[in-house]
Amino acid sequence: MGHGGCASRHSLTRQDKLSGWAISLYITSMDVSPGDLADRYLAFARSEAHGVSPIYERYATSTAESCDLLTRLLNLPRGKQQPNLLLAATRHAVGLPQGDRDFARHVLDAWEEIKPVILSRSTQTNEPGRCACLLPALAQFEAPLALIEVGAAAGLCLIPDRYGYDYGRAHLPAVEKAAPVFPCAASDQTPIPAALPRIAWRAGLDLNPLDVRKDADMQWLKTLVWPEQTDRLTRLEAAIAVARRDPPNVIAGDLLTATEALAAQAPKDARLVIFHTAVLNYVAPEIRKEFATLVQDIGADWLANEGASILPDVASQAVLNDRAGAFVLSHNGRAVARTGPHGQFIEWL
Known about the structure:
By secondary structure, the chain is of the alpha/beta class. It has 2 domains: 12-120, no CATH class; 128-348, 3-Layer(aba) Sandwich (Rossmann fold). The protein has 14 helices and 12 strands. It has helices at 12-17, 20-27, 34-49, 54-64, 67-74, 83-94, 103-109, 111-120, 131-138, 215-223, 230-245, 255-263, 285-298, 317-321, and strands at 145-150, 164-166, 171-172, 181-183, 185-186, 199-206, 250-252, 271-277, 301-307, 327-331, 334-339, 345-348. The strands form 2 sheets. A 9-stranded mixed beta sheet has the order 5-12-11-10-9-8-1-6-7, sandwiched between helices. The chain has a 3-stranded mixed beta sheet with strand order 3-2-4, with no helix packed on it. A hairpin with a 2-residue loop joins strand 10 (327-331) and strand 11 (334-339). The chain is globular and about 55 Å long.
């Protein structure tokens, strides 16, 4: 399959070996050509959307084959060229193409409406279902807990004690009316807690916080859910309703400059846990190392739930290969579980 005349700089063999995030990080380290960007969209189609979203697989492939659209994307800032952002911004601004209309042509015809959304928004997927994977790790700490979430978006993962969970062999009912119940297939080794965590204090940090009370912000979160994932969207809407009754505190700030000051506000008699999910893929590798050192200096417990290639020193390649596409949940730099990117499963190591 060609790139509509745009030459590729990477062979298909090389491309197919890298995950979507790895392709992203690899490309951002060099000058980007149309072929590079085409490879990135094809990797997204094959490694992330395939088997999950036929719609997005088709649209990402259409983008990769359009030199005109690739050129438009290359004129945007580097961080604004990613597939999820283009796809969500298109849906948000003008909706999806009708019938058999080509996605690339649909975007090009509405580019002046789509471009401002790309420039003003970012992929802040605030997936509360990931709380099902965080819960077994949080239960290992002595309560009460003080939580800081880095890259919190609207803070929906800051309220794990307000949702319900279905682990298959065990259930934790929600304490709030109409709260979502998140399904999560748990391995036999996973230490499922007997009760929800006791959280004394919580706060979030984000470069561009989203406000659960603002309909425009929440509509953007909903648009970031892929089109076929209707059950996930329903649970997200329920989580937003829960958060609106008592919104978590999320402040604007950078993870290197604001985390320490925020940690100083936590009550001294609570166990401080700093966590994040699918955040460090947007951060340069050297910044990740500085952040790890910062958390260690603060003296907090550090839970990272990230793509397998994002913190390569956390787990052996053999562990990662056992479950393709899984995230790795780590505590203070040591892998403790493989997890589903949206909280679908947890396999304790």
